[in-house]
Design a protein that fits this description.
This protein is α+β, with helices and mostly antiparallel strands. It contains seven helices and 22 strands. A hairpin with a 7-residue loop joins strand 14 and strand 15.
Length: 435
């Protein structure tokens, strides 16, 4: 095994190679053990295995949403459809058994649930000059960046399927019930009471647990609010009697729910209404055509972007049917339906795809075991691809690339075992980027 491979091992252990001596030249004759005419020509078998392992290991920690689903291997030679199976529960056997008489018994009821796998991927192209002047190992650095992207991509695919569930709670504010996302704001926090309520709802559905507890996937901002409110009721992972059982991303337990934290927990956010301003303001309103003349200037492309969007005016969520560009005081938006309370001059028009006044809304997903299924990351789930200079249409050996591609699918298996709890946060006014 050559010296460069040991350099890579030292790099993976935290010893960054910062010299041209430690740089791996992918066309070095020393790396001639290759796969014939494969795209990876010039990369030794040892390095190919090492790079693949690095990609998988670096991508795995980002798969927080993925870790709690039923796992299925990628279907080889079976088309693009993968099948999961859910066993229905049996009714109570309340009829007494007669002495000496064998009852009819029962049968397992299996419900097949299928999902279609899709492919995702990306790559980084590097020039010969970049490789020549780089002071770090280019392939490994690119692999680290791509692995992070791959993990977040695959995890988001699973997360978005989970978010499509039908069961949702909206956190109350100031003791008042909230019935829609557009009414959530900084005061509608995830509280201890909301956690116990969610756990009770899962228990009422007989959702199976993970070793006696349910799991909640939570954003760091929401976790901050919850831990502040929980006080001594919060059990930190440092107090666990069995640290070996800690899940990836787990931060603590409350009310029989183990909380797993990730910045990839869903944030519902709304884009600004124009390039220069987040909100718009009313200049005048024509009730006959649901037309609002706005006080700000709108460019043509800005007006086009508003069509079909939602806005919030006087606390009411309304859809924009059309918009017309113009100077300040002449640009207009036409609403699809009449507002309950007619807008007046200087009323604020807020983005309507998130919470109250366009503030960010956060989703915390509460789970029972077997609520959903996903495909595995290994065995075809993610592939690492290195193409050396001179491969393909590269007559002057000017370009090389490092990339990944992967196949992923997820499906909800048992709707009653999954609950989405939407809340605001102390950070709702500043967290304006959705994910």
């Amino acid at each position: 095994m050559n010296r460069d491979f040991f350099d890579l091992q030292r790099f993976a252990e935290g010893n960054t190679v910062h010299s041209t001596e430690g740089y791996v030249n992918s066309n070095d004759p020393a790396l001639s053990e290759s796969y014939g005419d494969s795209p990876d020509k010039g990369v030794s078998a040892e390095m190919k295995t090492f790079y693949d392992k690095v990609l998988i290991e670096l991508a795995t920690p980002a798969l927080v949403h993925d870790q709690f689903g039923q796992k299925r291997p990628i279907p080889a030679g079976s088309g693009k459809t993968i099948e999961f199976r859910r066993f229905n529960t049996l009714k109570k056997a309340l009829s007494a058994i007669e002495e000496g008489v064998t009852p009819d018994g029962n049968k397992l009821s299996v419900v097949p649930v299928s999902a279609t796998v899709d492919q995702y991927g990306d790559y980084i192209e590097m020039t010969d000059m970049f490789e020549l002047t780089a002071i770090d190992n280019v392939i490994l650095e690119a692999t680290r960046v791509l692995a992070d992207q791959a993990g977040r991509t695959m995890d988001t695919v699973v997360r978005n399927v989970m978010l499509g569930g039908s069961a949702v709670n909206y956190c109350s504010k100031s003791g008042q019930e909230v019935t829609s996302r557009s009414a959530l704001d900084n005061d509608a926090l995830l509280t201890v009471k909301e956690v116990f309520k969610a756990a009770a709802q899962l228990r009422a559905q007989n959702a199976p647990t993970f070793d006696g507890s349910y799991v909640a996937i939570i954003h760091p901002y929401v976790a901050y609010d919850l831990m502040q409110a929980a006080g001594d009721q919060w059990i930190d992972i440092t107090k666990y009697t069995n640290p070996a059982s800690i899940m990836t991303g787990e931060i603590g337990t409350l009310g029989g729910v183990r909380f797993v934290q990730t910045s990839e927990a869903k944030i519902y956010a709304a884009d600004d209404l124009s390039k220069s301003a987040r909100n718009l303001s009313v200049s005048s309103y024509e009730s006959s055509g649901n037309k609002i003349t706005i006080a700000e200037k709108l460019e043509e492309d800005e007006a086009g972007a508003l069509e079909g969007r939602y806005v919030i005016i006087k606390g009411e969520k309304l859809k924009v049917a059309s918009a017309a560009s113009g100077e300040a005081g002449s640009a207009t938006i036409t609403l699809e339906s009449a507002p309950s309370d007619s807008p007046a001059a200087s009323d604020i028009i807020y983005p309507g795809e998130a919470g109250s006044e366009g503030k960010a809304v956060f989703a915390t997903i509460f789970l029972g075991r077997d609520a959903y299924g996903t495909t595995e990351i290994e065995g075809g789930g993610i592939e690492h691809i290195v193409k050396q200079k001179g491969f393909g249409n590269d007559p002057l050996n000017q370009r090389s690339s490092v990339g990944w591609k992967g196949v992923k699918a997820a499906v909800r298996l048992a709707e009653p075992y999954m609950l989405r709890v939407e809340s605001g946060s102390t950070f709702s006014s500043s967290a304006l980027q959705g994910n």
